[in-house]
Amino acid sequence: MPIPKRPKPGSLADKALLRLLRGERITHREHDRETASYRLAAAIFNLRGKGWDIHSTPEVGVTRTGRIARFVRYRIPERTLRRYHAHSDVRRWLGGTNDHPHSR
């Protein structure tokens, strides 16, 4: 089964996708720290539109000031990661090595 098309290498969507393909579960705040961009939801929307299987889980946390904050954590399900990691393109995108346990 073919995999969806990769976004432009180095783009915000590509950076998010590569983290997800490494098995990371990312939030907007984590993505913002890495990329200085508030556009993770837009990147995820575009990736999903290209066919990438990305799930979101709503979470609740408390800020430094004590305010309740609602946010979303994004991930690619394990079963889907195994399928993606079976493709040489994905392994190449991840630099030829992949620390995810299902890549072997």
Description:
The protein has a single domain (12-95), classed as Arc Repressor Mutant, subunit A, CATH 1.10.10. Strand 2 (55-62) and strand 3 form a beta hairpin. It has 104 residues and is α+β, with helices and mostly antiparallel strands. The two termini are 19 Å apart. It has a 3-stranded antiparallel beta sheet. Helix 1 packs across helix 3. The chain is built from 5 helices and 3 strands, in the order H-E-H-H-E-E-H-H.
List keywords for this structure.
three-stranded antiparallel beta sheet; 40% helix; 104 residues; disordered C terminus; alpha+beta
Sum up the overall morphology in one term.
elongated
Question: What is the number of helices?
Answer: 5
**Overall mean pLDDT score?**
89
Strand segment tally: 3
The strand line-up of the biggest sheet is: 1-3-2
CATH architecture: Orthogonal Bundle
Radius of gyration: 14 Å
CATH domain class name: Mainly Alpha
Uncertain residue segments? 97-104
Structural class: alpha+beta
Task: Please give the domain count.
Answer: 1
How much strand content do the residues show? 15-25%
Could you tell me how far the N terminus lies from the C terminus, measured between alpha carbons in angstroms? 19 Å
